[in-house]
Write a structure and sequence with these properties.
Rossmann fold, 5-stranded mixed beta sheet, 9-stranded mixed beta sheet, 10 helices, alpha/beta, 14 strands, single chain
Length: 310
């Protein structure tokens, strides 16, 4: 008997394929225009600075190395934000500060509050003014929304990117960096689209980020979001691994993979990339890697599959 996940996947695929004929003309024209006029390509990643979007779990050393290098190496001044964690779990996030110090960061400051008024105060957000990097650790996305969305702290994060810094996050700390917030429901992380929590910090525009992709068997879930919001680009990241984003360039770093879900392309399967492979977020094309994909006719290497990563 087909389970609920299988039924949902079949229904979504049927709906996507039915809509594909209508969308194909638009996708073709958009693809041609994007290549003919570079200014028409959407800016997805930040124009300045970088994002490090990590998929949860114990991160590979190369993820931390990439983050610290972007933050300035041994000159890095890092702010750690553990606010996504529950109160009883906050101390479990603090070893991240020591890990960053041991990796060579010059300074590591912990910034945390549950109070939006405090998050909006100049004194509280002051450490962000001289920071070269910020790391947002995991937990639940809604706590970050309640504490920081549209406060001075949120604005200071944007200013850090504008001056060329890096903002990274693990699990919920990665999801919050996108414009659409996945799994923001306060009651459960099993719900992908929460009615009251759909806005993230917006540093990855026109996109949604999911995490623990393969570890929690979530590889089909982002199609649900893309069906409701086909304009969005879905980014699913497995544990231990990250997407390092500079402009519209997203490079996979780590032992597992990152999957990209394109609503204007083939609806049955995302493009899955592994360490060292690169995706163009604006054109929605693989630019470095075994997988070759375009908006109308994806041709994935048959050897490159989710099963490769188990």
């Amino acid at each position: 008997m087909t389970g609920p996940r299988g039924v949902r996947s079949v229904l979504l695929l049927a709906l996507f394929l039915a809509a594909g004929a209508c969308a194909s003309g638009y996708a073709s024209e958009a693809s041609q225009n994007a290549h003919a006029d570079p200014d028409s390509v959407p800016q997805v990643g930040p124009e300045n600075g970088a994002l490090v979007l990590a998929g949860g779990g114990e991160l590979a050393p190369e993820v931390w190395d990439a983050f610290l290098e972007l933050a300035g190496g041994d000159s890095a001044r890092i702010v750690l934000i553990p606010t996504a964690a529950a109160e009883e779990d906050l101390e479990d996030r603090l070893p991240t500060a020591e890990r960053l110090r041991n990796a060579g960061a010059r300074e590591v400051t912990v910034l945390h509050t549950r109070d939006r008024e405090e998050a909006d105060a100049p004194d509280f957000s002051a450490p962000l003014e001289n920071a070269t990097g910020v790391w947002i650790s995991g937990g639940r996305q809604w706590r970050l929304v309640d504490a920081y969305l549209h406060t001075r702290t949120h604005r200071k994060l944007y200013e850090l990117l504008t001056r060329g810094g890096v903002v990274g996050g693990n699990s919920a700390g990665a999801s919050i960096l996108a414009s659409f917030l996945a799994r923001g429901d306060p009651e459960t992380n099993d719900i992908l689209i929460a009615p009251e929590y759909q806005e993230g910090f917006g540093f990855l525009a026109g996109a949604a980020v999911d995490q623990h992709l393969l570890a929690r068997n979530r590889q089909d879930d982002l199609w649900e979001l893309i069906y409701q919001h086909p304009e969005l680009l879905g980014v699913g990241i497995d544990e231990g691994t990250a997407a390092v984003v500079q402009g519209n360039r997203a490079e996979v770093v780590g032992p597992s993979g990152v999957a990209f879900y394109n609503g204007f392309s083939y609806m049955g399967r995302p493009v899955l990339l592994k360490h060292g492979e690169v995706y163009d977020l604006g054109h929605r094309l693989v630019v470095v890697g075994r997988a070759v994909e375009n908006q109308l006719d994806p041709k994935l290497d048959p050897e490159l599959d989710f099963h490769d990563l188990h």
